Amino acid sequence: MSHSKTPFIVVLSLALTMMLGPFSMDTYLPAFPAIGDSLGVSQQAVSLSVSVYVFAIAFGQLIGGALSDRFGRQRILMSGLAIFAVASLIIGQAESLEVLLGGRAIQAFGAGWTLVSVPALVRDRVAGRDAAKLFSLMGFIMVLAPGVAPSVGSAILALGSWHYIFYALAAYALLLVPLLVRVIFTGKGKVSRAKSPQMSLLARYKLVLTTKPALPFIAWQAAAFSMMMMFVTYASLIYQGHFEQTPAAFSMLFAANIVTMLVFNILNRVLLSRLPSLRILQLATCCQAVGMVLLLMAAFMDWPLVAFLPAMMLTIGSMGAVSPNIQACFLEFFPTSGGTAAALLGAAQFGVAGVLSGLSAVLPHSLEAIVLMMAVCASVAYLMLARSFIKGRSAVEAH
User: Fold this and answer.
1) Which parts pass through the membrane (predicted)?
2) Which of 39, 118, 169, 385 could anchor a disulfide with 285, C-beta 3.0 to 4.6 Å?
């Protein structure tokens, strides 16, 4: 199925499914004080549930990806939604920190199964430039998820207790089931993918890990995503702490990054009609590198907010073109093991970002330290960029 013939309802269904993971990571953030009071623990203890979620979603993807190649996308995706819904209901009943943390781990495990099935479903349908266009459109909807999630959580909190947030997440997962059955797994939406060979889970991962030309894309994605997660983790500290902005102003400053991501996303889709995915990825990563240099200058030369903001918008916004093209370039290598490949890419980005985000807690919480941590994360992506240029030049000279 070519991208031009992919109905918008299919794209929307896949994006809403993929959104479940990041959306449920952030929806309950405004409820931290209420959860802490209710369970009789500190907000610091409640924030442990974010780390638990990030690691469990990485682990869930590793298991679910290979299983979806073996048993089919529908079984694993639907099982993931069921696990997620049941865990959400358990968290909604939680009366202790242990139940909250355990529930979040199971919830994230189910979200991992759901999340990893979507890139594989895209890979089953389209390849190359068409896949990049589809990822780009889904990426835009994905970008909105973390941006709107806290507002949705606040709205639910205004109506009642924090438990309702998790009941709402359970309802979200259950409503996806009839949508997916109707749009993706029946009629025109159904796709017969390339027959996947019968292999064990370990053999599937060995196949992906021994496909050497694909591996730099894993490092590229993990590095760029970790840089973005570092910003998300400390955005409030940067804008409300360092620049002394009000909560309302913070929402607008945070949204500025999402607007820039959208611009890069639209630009990406226009350029895909003229340029290969890898070339756009290189250009977008160059834009990000320029933004990062400006950010370092802004932090260490004490630039005002009006000069700092455009640098941050360029650095974070370029992810709107970086991520979809990394996914498309990487999955191109795996026509029959798309699930396993997507799992490895997803688990690497969440796992690495989770570890680095946890380690960053011991560093000084100053603007300079935060920007420096972002630069260290991003530097690996820029090494992969340099490598891709060198490889490309070698290939041209060989011809």
Assistant:
1) 7-25, 45-64, 76-93, 105-122, 134-158, 164-185, 214-237, 249-268, 280-301, 307-330, 342-363, 369-390
2) 385
Binned at pLDDT 50, 70 and 90, residue 143 comes out as low
pLDDT value at residue 196: 54
Q: Are residues 165 and 229 in the same domain?
A: no
Plot region of 193 (φ>0 → left; ψ -120 to 50 → alpha; else → beta): beta
Q: Which two tokens stand for residue 301?
A: 């030369």
The closest alpha carbon to 221, from 374, 331, 323, belongs to 323
Name the band, by pLDDT with cuts 50, 70 and 90, for residue 399.
very low
Percent of the chain with pLDDT over 70: 92
Query: pLDDT-based confidence at 398, cuts 50/70/90?
Result: low
For residue 186 the two structure tokens come to 């029946």
As given in the structure block, the two tokens for residue 106 are 């199971």
What global pTM score does this model have? 0.79
- The parent domain of residue 319 ranges over 212-333+363-399
My answer on whether 222 and 121 are in the same domain is no
CATH of the domain at 264: 1.20.1250.20
Distance CA 116, CA 111 (A): 8
Q: Are residues 98 and 138 in the same domain?
A: yes
Rounded Cα gap, residues 350 and 55, in angstroms: 7
State how far the Cα of 393 lies from the Cα of 398, in Å rounded to an integer. 9
Give 3's pLDDT tier (boundaries 50, 70, 90).
very low
**Per-residue pLDDT tens digits for 320-360:** 999 989 988 998 898 878 888 888 998 898 889 888 877 88
136 contacts 272 by C-beta, under 8 angstroms: yes
The token duo for 10 is 């299919």
Confidence band for 142, pLDDT divided at 50, 70 and 90 = low
Cβ-count burial 221-230 (b if 16+ within 10 Å, e if not): bbbbbbbbbb
| Other beta carbons within 10 Å of 88 | 26
Q: What is the DSSP letter of 5?
A: G
Q: Residue 184 and residue 360: Cα distance in Å, rounded?
A: 41
In a domain, residue 192? The reply is: no
Sign of dihedral through CA atoms 88, 92, 94, 97?
Answer: positive
Which pLDDT value is given to residue 397?
A: 57
| Listed residues 144, 175, 208: the one ending a domain | 208
